[in-house]
Structures are given as C-alpha cells and as structure tokens.
Amino acid sequence: MRVLISGAGIAGPVLAYHLSKGINAQVTVLERAEKLLAQGQNIDIRGTAMKVIREMGLYDELKKRNTTEIGCQFVTGKGKPIASFPVWIEGVETKCPSPTSEYEILRGDLADMLYQATIHDSNIQYKFSVTVEKVLENTEDHVKVRLSNGEEIEYDVLVAADGQWSKIRKQCFDEEDLQVVDKNMYIGYWTAPRDSSDNDWWRIYHTTKSRLISLRPDPYGTIRPMFSKMPATEEEKEKWRKVSRSHDRAAQISLLKEEFADAGYEADRLMKSLDTAEDFYFQAVSQIRMKKWSVGRVVCVGDAAYAPTPLTGMGTPLAILGAYVLAGELTSLKKGENPSGALKEYENAFKPFVAKIQDVPSFIPGVMHPKSSFGIGILHTVFWVLCKIFTQPFIARKFPEGEDEEDYKLKEYPILQQLASKTKSTTTSEKA
Ligand SMILES: Cc1cc2nc3c(=O)[nH]c(=O)nc-3n(C[C@H](O)[C@H](O)[C@H](O)COP(=O)(O)OP(=O)(O)OC[C@H]3O[C@@H](n4cnc5c(N)ncnc54)[C@H](O)[C@@H]3O)c2cc1C
Ligand SMILES: *[C@@H]1O[C@H](CO)[C@@H](O)[C@H](O)[C@H]1NC(C)=O
C-alpha cells in the first residue's frame, strides 16, 4: 500500500509507524515547515492514548521528557495559592483528580519523539518544505497528487494530518461538510526565562475582564506562559478576530500587551520576554467538526478532522487514537480491497468518542474566564472546596481516576496487536 500523509505533527507519525510496521506500507510524510515544528506547550496523554504510546515502546522515552510539573494551582495576584491539585499525593494510594497528569510532555518533545521513532524506518520517507499543491484525481483505483516540488505521484490513500486549518480538507471536501465552532477565546503561548519566583507548579491566575494567565514548567530551565482572553463586547470581539486572522505576529503581540497591561501578577515580567520569544504562537480557539471524514481515498485525521480545543485537554490523545484506529482499519483490509471502506469504518469506530469529547458545555470557557473580581472569588471558592474534598485521602480513594484507565475501548486489530506484542518483547524496561 502506498500512503501519502500530509503533516508531520502528532497524528502523521503515529499513522506512518503503524502502517509501515504493520503491513509494510510505503509511506511518504510531507511537512510544510523546513524542519519539525518544535513549538507547543505542555500537553498530557491520558487514557487509551497512553496504551498506544506504550505499545509503540515509547514509555521510557516519554518519561524521560517529563515536563516535571508537580500539579496545578490556582493563585492570587500576589502568587498565593488558593487551591492546589497535586499530580500525586504522597502516602495516598489513589490519585487525586488533577489537571496535571502523570504523563506530561511538551508538544514539541512529543512530536520529536514520534519523529525519531519513525525516521530510521526504510518504509517511511519524510519530505520537508513540500506540500500537496493539488489533488488531481481521486478515483476507484488511486489518488493522484501534484506536489509543490512539481512531482506528480499516485497513491492508494491520501491522509490529511495537516492540523486544524488543513489544506487537503479544503481541497477535497465540500464547505457544507465542515463546521468551525468559534469559542470566542484567544490564546498567546511562548517561552520565557525562568526567575527565582518560579516553581514547578502549573499556576493559573484569573483576573478581571475575562483574562487568564497560566504558567507551566518545562524540562529546559525556562517557563511556558499562556495568556488567554475572552472578549466581551462586539467591538472587542471584532478587534481580536481581526488580529487573529491577520497572522501578523507584531499586531498579535501588541494587542496582548495592551490587553494585559493592568493584569497584575507576573504579567509585566512575562510580557517583557515577548519581544525576544522565538516561539510565540497565537490561537483563536475553535473546534473543527466534519459531517464525514473521508471522500473516496482521501481521509482526515487528528486536528484536521476533529480539533477539540485546548479546553478539552484532548487534542493530542485524539490525534494519537485517531491515527491508531485509522491504521487498524487499513491493516485489516484484504489484499486488493478498496480502502474507502476502511476509511468509513475508521469514522464509524471513532466518531462517537470524538463527539463525546467535543461536547464541551458552552458555558465552560466563560466559567474559566470570570469578568469581575466577584466572579473570580466564586471560582476560587469552588476550587478551594474541590481541593479540600479531593485531598482528603478517604474521599480521594473513592474517585480512582487512574491515568491508565481506558477512556476509549479500542477495537481488536489483529495485525496491530501482533505488532504490539513484538515491540513489547524487544523493549526491556516496560513498567508492569
Ligand atoms: C506549532 C504548534 C503548537 C501547538 N501548541 C499546542 C499547545 O501548546 N497546546 C495544545 O493543547 N495544542 C497545541 N497544538 C495543537 C496540538 O498539536 C494538536 O491539538 C494535536 O496534537 C493534534 O495533532 P495533529 O497531528 O492532528 O496536528 P498538528 O500537531 O497541528 O500537526 C499538523 C502538522 O501539519 C503541518 N502542516 C500544516 N499545513 C500543512 C500542509 N499544507 N502541508 C504539509 N504539512 C502541513 C504542520 O506544520 C504541523 O507540523 C499545537 C500545534 C502546532 C502545530
Ligand atoms: C513526571 O514528573 C512528576 C513531577 O515530578 C511526577 O509526579 C510524575 O510521576 C512523573 N511522571 C512519570 C511518568 O514519571
């Protein structure tokens, strides 16, 4: 099977790995960027996605790249913690539900780890600075593309793993198939120098006018600020929308600076570092929903098909699981069978779980971004109560939210299961 994957993010390499190792597929992965994008902040891998990472033999590598975050804290403007949710409580047998999972990694580190796990595979070829310029044919027996380097090539399957604003999706699907759900929330992410006041907690600070600052540790001696804002009035909304669409980095930074000028807490120090930040990333938070995920031999996976927003904390787990399920269906094809059926099966098997994850109650972003100090006070009280409840060992034990617990029940794909047991026997220090 010849497979073309557009996008070397998270979903792309996971899919390439399983198709090559499972059925010896010849896989080409195109990446628009010159080199692997090292950007992105702390993400966690929970539930069944962690099972896939283990089956790929990458548990030790993941552990090595731990962000070192010890838990999540809500703090006041003076930095005083109001409520703390540690990742692990010493002496308590069960884990306390916490926004910090046991498996925290930077997005860039995860992307690199998956790339390293596939780059030496002779079935897999990465091409950087190359994109699909045009999908020329999508027929009964092949899909033909013209690449940006002029090559015209036929494949059996074309996979759009090129993220939230997928170009393949745009070319191959009707506009009516796509729904973009705008969450009216904007985030700026970057990396800042660490100073003596910093620590290894994920600190979340709420301030008035629906503004939030989050600070998370990384394993490189720097710190990862995230500023988020929900504009309130129509005028404000228009201003943020415009700056977001402009892709003008300087304008985005200057709006953020203007907006957070009186935010308090560590805002001033962090914003000073914005001028020299190399990895500034601005995001309009919106969900991607598609009526159908494939058309003929072209299929979408990960954010391209179902970006759930950072509000769910599930973008990466969905990308990993989606790629696995797609691989599972493709490796189950009979010789010579048209893959379009497998692409539909992937959608049937995975769509209900995606729908559940994407079903973020519409009030959630607003609750996380109170407008007034009164609202912030209420939120802090709620977190304080929750933290008191969960840190009572007696009660915590009744909420056994183990990270390893499966949230999505994987179908049994014989070839992938064989591959997993083969990998397991060759990786030495697996955690039991
Ligand atoms: C730079 C970056 C930073 C991010 N930071 C965060 C974060 O801090 N927190 C968070 O929760 N989520 C973040 N995300 C989103 C997160 O990575 C996804 O939710 C999730 O991992 C889904 O992965 P994916 O493989 O579907 O898409 P992505 O990880 O978005 O990967 C898509 C890849 O496709 C490439 N690409 C785009 N267009 C084309 C094209 N036309 N041709 C070829 N390749 C193309 C991109 O360069 C990228 O490498 C970030 C994404 C990116 C790209
Ligand atoms: C990652 O580091 C945190 C903080 O030190 C720790 O609680 C957690 O157990 C670590 N995770 C793994 C998988 O070792």
TrEMBL record:
<keyword id="KW-0285">Flavoprotein</keyword>
<dbReference type="InterPro" id="IPR002938">
    <property type="entry name" value="FAD-bd"/>
</dbReference>
<feature type="domain" description="FAD-binding">
    <location>
        <begin position="2"/>
        <end position="358"/>
    </location>
</feature>
<keyword id="KW-0274">FAD</keyword>
<dbReference type="InterPro" id="IPR051704">
    <property type="entry name" value="FAD_aromatic-hydroxylase"/>
</dbReference>
<protein>
    <submittedName>
        <fullName>FAD/NAD(P)-binding domain-containing protein</fullName>
    </submittedName>
</protein>
<dbReference type="Pfam" id="PF01494">
    <property type="entry name" value="FAD_binding_3"/>
</dbReference>
<dbReference type="GO" id="GO:0016491">
    <property type="term" value="F:oxidoreductase activity"/>
</dbReference>
<dbReference type="GO" id="GO:0071949">
    <property type="term" value="F:FAD binding"/>
</dbReference>
<dbReference type="InterPro" id="IPR036188">
    <property type="entry name" value="FAD/NAD-bd_sf"/>
</dbReference>
<keyword id="KW-0560">Oxidoreductase</keyword>
